[in-house]
Design a protein that fits this description.
Length: about 200
């Protein structure tokens, strides 16, 4: 017969295990150093919160190792921390999802499930065949994608014009001061007057 259920007969479904009580004297089994050894960093509180790769304060291995040049520079785009990212979309996906004569833009790609959101730039690539006439608007196009879209009778409009690496920024030339020329002109005028004055009496004679 089952034991009558009362407050004094309640028991947990699983037996409880007492927590380890350290530092309660030598007779407790976890006294003196409480299982942490004698001294050192690992015997102190907070020693288990060291970051991964911490080597006691010396230079970590990832900082001692040599680095490749350029991948941490702002001038090294699109690699490094300043890298830019564009979401690739292939022509075969546009041909599969959109109908003939549709207008394809970033919002339409999100609605069709080709993109998750409009945060990243979209670049249309030429993988696959396009048999439909589409008016595609994206941030950039590959050369093959642009050719296939126009060959199918559609149009490709780029939101970002590609930069020509051959064009370099020309420094503005400083305007040349006109002061020396004006001084020379002023210095020439009295000479001309003097010549005319000397010539005039000779004519009168």
């Amino acid at each position: 017969m089952a034991e009558e259920l009362n407050l004094h007969t309640l028991k947990p479904a699983q037996e409880r295990k007492d927590r380890k009580r350290v530092g309660r004297g030598l007779g407790s089994g976890k006294g003196r150093y409480s299982g942490r050894g004698i001294n050192g960093q690992k015997s102190r509180a907070g020693s288990k919160k060291m970051p991964a790769g911490f080597e006691g304060g010396q230079m970590p291995l990832d900082m001692r190792a040599p680095k490749l040049r350029g991948n941490t520079s702002a001038d090294a785009m699109p690699i490094g921390p300043f890298r830019t990212y564009s979401q690739p979309i292939n022509l075969r996906d546009l041909d599969r999802v959109f109908a003939d004569g549709d207008t394809v833009n970033i919002e339409a790609m999100v609605e069709k499930g080709l993109l998750k959101n409009t945060k990243a730039d979209v670049k249309v690539l030429g993988t696959g065949d396009l048999k439909k006439k589409l008016s595609v608007t994206a941030h950039s196009f590959s050369a093959s994608a642009r050719e296939k879209i126009t060959a199918a009778g559609g149009s490709a409009t780029a939101l970002k014009e590609p930069k020509d690496p051959r064009k370099k920024k020309s420094k503005a030339k400083k305007p040349v001061a006109d002061e020396p020329e004006t001084e020379a002109a002023e210095s020439d005028e009295p000479v001309a007057e003097a010549e005319t004055e000397t010539e005039a009496p000779a004519e009168e004679e």
